[in-house]
Design a protein that fits this description.
Length: 423
């Protein structure tokens, strides 16, 4: 009885808070708990792995490892990266069959990513770099399939089954992290470590996909326009995906593996804080998908202010504690403290940016996303190239802050001006 009173009191407070914040806090509290739980679990393993590798591996080798992963992220532009958002949107609207159809479509189209990986591998073989060459072969063979089967997460997002997303994500991170760490301790070989990472990433995604297929009842509702939208969105995202890792690739090319290792660790915690903020996306996308742009605009600007305030607080907190963290966790990379404090300013823009991107995706605003991604690609090329040329790795860090400011302003303009109706 006493427990029921407490439960009702909490519901009352959440409803009152929701009226003030113009948000369904009960939905967000239930969903965010499991997403936060999953993100914390995945972060512990990924951050723990990065910390151990940074302290176990030589700086040059660790930089080379990050360079190969950056190339893997770049060739991901050749896969159907937009299909997950399309599947989440379709499943939230009750069109379950889109999920299964999207897998076969992705496996066919992701052959482009496989070809890109193998061609890059051949390039490095020709240039007598066997280590990177074999690493790219492993990536080209397994990651395209892993990306396709990872769509199970989009299906669960559409169903709002955040609990399963959390447990599957933690399990996948645990398995991959343990095997990669074991490989690093057993034999310091770049192709061996990357091969283990690629194969295990494929296996855990495939197993999770098979579990979802076996344990869920699917309806036959299907909408061909959702697959078409996924392809359109992938094309739209191609430039954005291609540019995601350009900072690391350019930095490796101009300044080498040791500098890249420091830069990666400087960005590691700010990027993970940004990933926590991204939890807004799977919570908001299904909700926004069920409303039109006029309804969303009624309270989105208020939510943007709240998200900006929260983001500023997170950035300031990290700037204060960064020196302590680096002395304790990355004692070999104390030169990256100033760098990480500069880079952490991207956190300020992350909250509003992620929320606005969720609005565009939920309303299938293909034209607006095209404009955003083209703008992002051009600006990133400029700030990365000239930032490194003018001021080295610090110029790159300031350039990334400028990029996020431009991205946020661009999204705000696009979201505010459009009258696009949902598909």
């Amino acid at each position: 009885m006493h427990r029921e009173k407490i439960k009702n009191r909490i519901k009352y407070l959440l409803n009152k808070g929701g009226e003030y914040l113009k948000t369904d806090l009960i939905y967000f509290t239930k969903g965010s708990f499991w997403l936060f739980f999953g993100q914390v679990g995945a972060w512990i393993f990924s951050f723990g792995l990065a910390t151990l590798l940074a302290n176990i591996l030589p700086k040059e080798f660790f930089g080379n490892y990050q360079f190969v992963l950056a190339i893997a992220g770049t060739i991901g532009a050749f896969s159907l990266t937009g299909m997950n958002a399309a599947v989440t949107r379709a499943v939230a609207q009750g069109k379950d069959k889109v999920f299964k159809e999207s897998i076969s479509t992705q496996i066919k189209w992701n052959g482009l990513m496989m070809a890109a990986g193998l061609l890059i591998g051949i390039y490095y073989f020709i240039n007598d770099n066997q280590s990177v060459g074999w690493s790219m072969v492993a990536i080209g063979l397994f990651l395209p399939l892993a990306n396709a089967f990872n769509t199970y997460v989009a299906f669960l997002n559409g169903k709002r089954d955040f609990k399963k997303i959390a447990f599957y994500g933690i399990g996948a991170s645990l398995v991959v992290s343990l095997f990669v760490l074991g490989a690093s301790l057993t034999y310091i070989s770049l192709p061996f470590i990357i091969g283990i990472y690629s194969i295990l990433t494929f296996i855990v995604n495939f197993v999770a996909y098979k579990i979802i297929i076996r344990n869920h009842q699917f309806n036959d509702a299907f909408d061909e326009s959702s697959i078409k939208y996924g392809k359109h969105l992938s094309l739209v995202n191609a430039l954005f995906s291609f540019s995601q890792e350009l900072d690391k690739i350019f930095l490796f090319h101009y300044l080498g593996g040791v500098v890249l290792a420091s830069y990666f660790l400087a960005t590691l915690i700010p990027e993970n804080i940004k990933n926590f903020i991204k939890l807004v996306n799977p919570l908001s996308l299904p909700k926004f998908s069920q409303r039109n742009i006029s309804e969303i605009r009624e309270n989105i600007y208020y939510k943007l202010i709240i998200s900006l305030v929260v983001s500023i607080c997170l950035a300031l907190a990290y700037i204060i504690i960064a020196p302590i963290l680096f002395h304790f966790v990355f004692p070999q990379y104390l030169d990256a403290i100033k760098l990480t404090r500069i880079y952490s300013l991207i956190i300020v823009f992350s909250g509003p940016m992620i929320l606005m991107m969720s609005v565009l995706n939920s309303q299938a605003m293909v034209k607006q996303v095209y404009i955003f991604n083209i703008t992002t690609f051009i600006v990133k090329l400029l700030v990365v190239f000239f930032g490194i040329k003018i001021a080295g790795v610090y110029g790159l860090a300031w350039g990334m802050v400028i990029l996020y400011a431009v991205m946020t302003i661009t999204l705000f303009i696009l979201m505010s001006k459009t009258n696009k109706k949902p598909l």
